[in-house]
Design a protein that fits this description.
The structure holds two protein chains of two kinds. Chain A is α+β, with helices and mostly antiparallel strands. Helices cover about 45% and strands about 15% of the residues of chain A. A four-stranded antiparallel sheet of chain A has the order 2-3-1-4, with helices on one face. The termini of chain A are close together. Classes of the chains: A alpha+beta, B mainly alpha.
């Protein structure tokens, strides 16, 4: 397999990082990844990342939860064994619905929340015993790292990154 | 400075005139004599193939308060037909008063809700809202006249709205004597009602007066002393407000059903007024912005207001359902009659309002992008406002007109009348000061607010 090279440019300030990202994007280099110790507001916009769709999935999961609650209680309380419990009208679902609303609500929230979190874990590839993908441990503390692919243009790229205020620029072999 | 456009002024005056005509028509047509009501009822019976005869019995049995004043409860069936007719006659007489009262209260509560929202913005030192302060101040200008009108209608209507105002009900000698109402006479008496109402209105208006004064003084002030005063009175007002609002809702709304009580009623009314108030802030802001008067307001502010509309619609639903479900579940006869009458006679408004105040906003305003689109917010805002009008309608009407309700000329006339007055007062108040509260220390943050 061919070994490709990437440049790791390290910054120590999120404002400088933001302006560097804008400059690198303006020069039409492809930013592979950015590692930061905390969320930097506006970084996703500067990088041109597509907006997340996780809220839409949560909405759908919520609807599924609501359906589960309705179908479950309709079967148990109305169809399977419509017993008279304390005079509650179990003749039809609608007649007894107010009593079911707390469960309908909770299951909607339960499904929306948990399935959304699981979706997030799957999409972000996060699970126990997963090997950390961190290229430099300092990026979890106080450094910011920008990773850019190199295609025989090291010189120009290094010059540009130095201009943007990178404190350290490393050329790294990345075995695929 | 904003100038009240002559078009809008004419529009508000037209609304008021049309409204007055409608209200006048309502009062003219409601004076039916007992004989007329009897002929009307017998016509209805023949129309419906006698179905109403059964209903007549049923009505006097399941009967609550509203009629207690006007009807001897003994139900010695010899006089039964007469009693029913008299009862219906009273309901017909009550209708224009109730229609007027519902509309007056609705617009008053918008101003009051905005005042509470305004105080919260100060007390919480919100950084996003100072650009909207003058809009809120303009809307709260309606509070003093609006609340006095509500009180005036309440007193003028007397036992047309509040059966406990009928002196016979607390007189043990009278055949209309009602022990339950008499037992509450310590709170529910006309003098107390008026004194309390004046204290509420006085306190609210006092806060509104000083908040406005400090806000204007801050415009050209060298230091922040006015702002600090605003902060302190806002905190004090909120304490005063939450007590008086609760008592106001017992007095002005819950007491139309003096046999019924609910502990979370004050909160429930509060949620209704708060969400309508926030909606009106959004609508007035969008109107002014569309005319180019609020260039410092951007879609991020709109987004925040829309989030409040969304969240408080759900809060309202939560309280509505909590009240309904607790009563439905335990089904104690003395409190469940409240919902029985609403469910039997008001099915469409009762369930329709849940759709308008909950289902509609939750689906329309959930998407973050939609909350930034003006016409979308206006559309959902109008639905929310109509929904909350119906909410107040559902609180007052079943106790006063019973199944004789209709949203017809008296109701629409009253809404037009107060909508015209509201627009006139609010937009006149908006011309009195610059639309940007420029001395506010949080103003810069608010202008650059970005979500």
């Amino acid at each position: 397999m061919e070994a490709s090279k990437v440049i790791h440019a390290i910054y120590t300030d999120d404002d400088i990082l933001m302006s560097a990202v804008k400059k690198v994007k303006a020069e039409r280099y492809h930013i592979e990844e950015i590692y930061t110790p905390f969320p930097v507001h506006g970084l996703d916009k500067a990088m041109g990342l597509a907006p997340t769709r996780i809220a839409i999935t949560a909405f759908i999961y919520g609807l599924i939860g609501l359906t589960v609650a309705i179908v479950m209680m309709n079967f148990i309380m109305i169809e399977d064994w419509p017993q008279n419990i304390g005079g509650k009208p179990s003749f039809s679902y609608l007649e007894n619905m107010p009593a079911f609303v707390p469960i309908m609500f909770e299951l909607t929230v339960f499904f929306a929340a948990h399935l959304m979190v699981i979706t997030f874990y799957l999409r972000s590839r996060m699970w126990p015993f997963k090997d950390a993908e961190n290229p430099d441990p300092r990026t979890t503390d106080d450094h910011f790292l920008m990773e850019i692919a190199v295609n025989n243009n090291e010189e120009a790229l290094q010059g540009l990154l130095k201009e943007t205020g990178a404190v350290e620029i490393n050329l790294v072999d990345k075995a695929h | 400075m904003y100038t009240f456009s002559s078009k809008l002024k004419t529009f508000s005056i037209i609304l008021m005139v049309l409204g007055l005509l409608g209200v006048g028509y309502g009062f003219m047509t409601s004076h039916k004599s007992l004989e007329e009501v009897k002929t009307m009822l017998s016509e209805e019976v023949s129309h419906h193939g006698g179905g109403h005869a059964a209903e007549a019995t049923h009505e006097t049995e399941g009967h609550d308060n509203a009629h207690a004043a006007t009807e001897a409860h003994g139900a010695e069936s010899a006089h039964h037909g007469d009693e029913h007719a008299e009862h219906v006659m009273h309901q017909i007489h009550n209708r224009p008063y109730a229609a007027l009262y519902v509309a007056a209260f609705f617009f008053m509560m918008i101003a009051l809700g905005v005042l509470a929202f305004y105080a919260i913005q100060f007390a919480s030192q919100a950084g996003w809202s100072p650009v909207l302060f003058r809009v809120m101040e303009g809307i709260t200008a309606y509070l003093l006249p609006g609340a006095l009108i509500v009180l005036a209608i309440a007193i003028a209507a007397g036992d047309h709205l509040f059966v406990w105002m009928n002196p016979d009900m607390v007189n043990p000698e009278s055949e209309h004597f009602d022990a339950l109402v008499a037992g509450k006479a310590g709170w529910l008496n006309k003098t107390g009602f008026i004194i309390r109402a004046l204290i509420f209105i006085g306190g609210w208006s006092l806060y509104r007066h000083f908040a406005r004064k400090f806000s204007i003084a801050q415009d050209n002030a060298e230091d922040n002393s006015n702002y600090k005063k605003s902060f302190r009175i806002a905190a004090a007002f909120l304490v005063f407000f939450i007590y008086t609002e609760s008592m106001m809702s017992w007095d002005w709304i819950m007491s139309v059903d003096p046999h019924w009580f609910s502990t979370l009623f004050g909160w429930y009314v509060f949620a209704s007024m708060f969400v309508s108030g926030i909606t009106v802030i959004a609508l007035v802001t969008l109107y002014l912005k569309s005319k180019g008067h609020l260039e410092f307001v951007n879609e991020n502010h709109l987004h925040d207001v829309a989030k409040f509309m969304f969240a408080f619609s759900i809060f309202w639903t939560y309280l509505w359902f909590s009240q309904f479900m607790l009563i439905w579940y335990s089904n104690i006869p003395e409190e469940v009659t409240y919902f029985v009458t609403r469910f039997q006679d008001y099915k469409l408004p009762f369930l329709g309002m849940v759709a308008m105040n909950f289902v509609f906003p939750i689906l329309l305003l959930m998407n973050a992008d939609y909350k930034r689109v003006p016409w979308f917010v206006v559309l959902s805002g109008l639905v929310i406002l109509v929904g909350h009008y119906i909410d107040i309608f559902n609180m007052i009407m079943p106790a006063t007109v019973g199944d004789r309700w209709f949203i017809g000329v008296p109701e629409i006339g009253a809404v037009l009348l107060f909508a015209g007055l509201f627009i006139f007062v609010v937009f006149t108040a908006l011309t009195k000061a610059p639309l940007l509260a420029k001395g506010n220390p949080l103003l810069k943050e608010s202008k650059e607010f970005h979500y």
